[in-house]
Amino acid sequence: MSSNDLMTVILITLLLNMLPAFGASGMFKKAGVASWKAWVPFYNTFTMIQIAKRPKHWFFWQFIPVVGWFITLGIYIEFVKPFGKFTFLEHTMASLLAPIYFAYIGTNKKDRFVGVEAVKAYKKSSAREWLDAAVFAIVAATLIRTFVFEAYTIPTGSMEKTLLVNDFLFVSKSSYGARIPNTPLSIPFVHHTLPILNTKSYSELIYIPYTRWFGSPVKRNDVVVFNFPAGDTLTLEEDSKIPYYDMIDARVTQLMGTAAFVKQFPDAKQRAAQAYEIARNDVWDQYTVRTRPVDKRENYIKRCVGIPGDTLEIKEGILYVNGEKAFLAPGSAKNYLVQTNTQIDGEMLRKAGIQIKETADESDFMSVSANQYEVNLTLSELELIKKVPGVVSVTPEINPANYLIFPRDTSVANWSIDNFGPLGVPKKGAIIELSKKNIAFYKRAITVYEQNKWEERDGKIFINGKEASTYTFKMDYYWMMGDNRHRSQDSRFWGFVPEDHIVGKASLIWLSLDNGIRWKRLFNIIR
């Protein structure tokens, strides 16, 4: 457990122990116990155990990290029973709203101490026993998922060969500080959509602004789970498989390349505006478009290769950070063109020690032409394939410029996934000039992520109604890339990840499946 994890656990433990002290002092007095004992951390819960005549060893269980929280809640439930509180609602109040509920009991003249004999005389039904257990389990799991860790499954190959499809991970919520949910009204254990019903699993009647307890910055090269930044708008039919903005951009490109459309709108600026309007309307007509709050956007997992203030550049497929070659994880892979003087297949490469996945959706080995193949390789596998009989040459695959690459404005930057940048990562408090080039890179961060109103009038920029030539960032941002460099939808396509989108750090593989258990991957630390 890191020092940050420990501090978070200690804080929550102390809050659980001390917040009900005022109300407990009144209840102690009614039970004939000195009220000052309610204000002494842990001695107060020991006194509650004595009043309720429960096993004294419960007191010591409170000091087990995380588990102790639920023991404390259980003590609170037992403590209210000698005051005649036996209903499900009363026990829920005691466990979830102890500071308020204890104060009510302690100051309410109608509530009195009835003793443990009354508790022994009360019997719960079997249904009530099961209901109490279920609620307690839900509360416990919710607290763990919010403050400590959450289970996560790798759905795609964007991080191969570091992380494989159907790797099951523990994601540490405390590594960067526990993020309090923006939308607390949601069904437990469901991210954003109810299975079968295919409806929202949450309500936005209550919205909590971004809050993070004991926040700690993401470190360069961490493997991070985060909410998909471009997932603020989506279609229910495709979700993040085909992002909403990709749909519009693809339609815009199609229209702009049509001779009839160019003839209809000879002015380039007018043509672009019309193309966007038509594309947007087409998408809205053909799909069901929705928006999602930050904490309910799709979860992605990538490696953080750029932290606030970094400058990144990719040259011929090699990533540079602040002018230096970046860290390359041992499992990082990319495509190579392999020329041979004979036919080879995936099985031959597996026998040579190369990890080859061949599925209907994606393959690490594909034939390009006669005796030429595209193979997805790590650096260590690159050396192995050179020794395979029949291999003549192996060269890195370099992709051409693509209009879908960030910032999706070819008049400013015509980049590819292999030749990109240089580009600066925004840092909280950093000031940028609002030039045409900077607007292309940072406008979404300014308007969408930091929620500013943007207007352009008479060649001038107005932010929140005031003319502006510079902008000061309110948040830190990160640059995320998949270790499977040629098969990852990452920051190279949709840009920066704001700090409020960070979910947690991928820490441990606890299970891995592929037609059975991959035993060698169990309990591997993620690096």
Structure characterization notes:
The radius of gyration is 29 Å and the shape is globular. It is an alpha+beta fold and 527 residues long. It is built from 16 helices and 25 strands. 32% of the residues lie in helices and 21% in strands. The model has no long low-confidence stretch (mean pLDDT 91). It starts with a helix and ends with a strand.
- What is the share of helical residues? 25-40%
Main beta sheet strand tally, sense and closure: 8 strands, antiparallel
How many helical stretches? 16
Low-confidence stretches: none
Percent in strands: 15-25%
The CA-CA distance between the termini, in Å, is 16 Å
- Class computed from helices, strands and strand pairing: alpha+beta
Radius of gyration: 29 Å
Task: Describe the global form.
Answer: globular
What is the typical, i.e. mean, pLDDT? 91
Tell how many strands the DSSP assignment holds.
25
In short:
The protein is of the alpha+beta class and about 525 residues long. The chain contains 16 helices and 25 strands.
Describe the SSE topology.
Blueprint: H1 3-18, H2 21-30, H3 43-52, H4 58-61, H5 67-80, H6 88-96, H7 98-107, H8 116-121, H9 126-147, E1 149-153, E2 167-172, E3 178-180, E4 211-213, E5 223-227, E6 233-235, H10 244-256, H11 259-264, H12 268-286, E7 289-291, E8 299-306, E9 311-315, E10 318-321, E11 324-325, E12 334-340, H13 346-351, E13 365-369, E14 372-377, H14 379-385, E15 391-396, E16 420-424, E17 431-433, H15 436-449, E18 454-457, E19 460-463, E20 466-467, E21 470-472, E22 477-481, H16 491-494, E23 497-498, E24 502-512, E25 524-525
Antiparallel strand pairs: 1-2, 2-24, 3-4, 5-8, 5-24, 6-7, 8-22, 9-10, 9-16, 10-11, 12-14, 12-15, 13-14, 17-21, 18-19, 19-20, 22-23, 24-25
